[in-house]
Specification:
Elements (H helix, E strand, L loop, with lengths): L3 H32 L14 E3 L4 E2 L6 E6 L5 H5 L1 H13 L2 E6 L16 E6 L1 H6 L7 E6 L4 E6 L4 H14 L2
Parallel strand pairs: 3-4, 4-5
Antiparallel strand pairs: 1-2, 1-5, 3-6, 6-7
Length: about 170
């Protein structure tokens, strides 16, 4: 027969084991997320290219830098950072950057949505598409003239993200 002291000790052991299992799961989750990071700073992506909403082919532009935005008309988070994103776009255009907007799937971005000066790609070239992980929206990625990742943000931009992107942008176009 199990005494109450013995039962308490048994429950304490069970709780400790469960806590250790949870800690292990959290550590594995963090490591998997770290390894699955979409973009590594300094890694090169192909320059953006594909077909626009009107069906014309958009060749990889030569620009001093690129701002890529993965967005969707159905993404409520994509509207949360509209002011911050537009300020980044304005500064990027002043610096000679090309702004490219694309959606995770065809039909998720209307031709009227987004910044009017941005190139909107509805279909993207295979090499460019393979380098992206488009399923998290919004994403904002800053590339240098050679397509190297200088900065990226997954999720809505906040003031600190905007500030970091502006600093990187200023250094990129010197």
């Amino acid at each position: 027969m199990i005494t109450s002291a013995r039962a308490r000790t048994l429950w304490q052991i069970v709780l400790i084991v469960l806590i250790l299992v949870n800690v292990f799961e959290v550590c594995v989750s963090i490591e998997l997320r770290r390894q699955a990071k979409q973009y590594f700073f300094g890694s090169a992506l192909p320059k953006p290219s594909g077909y626009s909403s009107d069906g014309r082919y958009v060749a990889p532009p030569s620009a001093s830098c690129f701002v890529l935005r993965v967005s969707s008309d159905y993404c409520s988070f994509c509207r949360l950072d509209e002011d911050e994103y537009l300020r980044l776009v304005e500064r990027a255009k002043e610096s000679g950057c090309e702004v490219v907007v694309l959606a995770p799937k065809l039909g998720q971005l209307s031709s009227e949505s987004g910044d009017k000066g941005a190139v909107q790609l509805w279909y993207i070239d295979f090499a460019f598409g393979r380098s992206l992980v488009p399923y998290a929206t919004p994403q904002t990625i800053l590339l240098d003239r050679n397509g190297r990742v200088l900065w990226f943000n997954e999720g809505a931009l906040d003031q600190s993200g905007l500030s970091r992107s502006m600093k990187v942008l200023a250094n990129a176009v010197r």
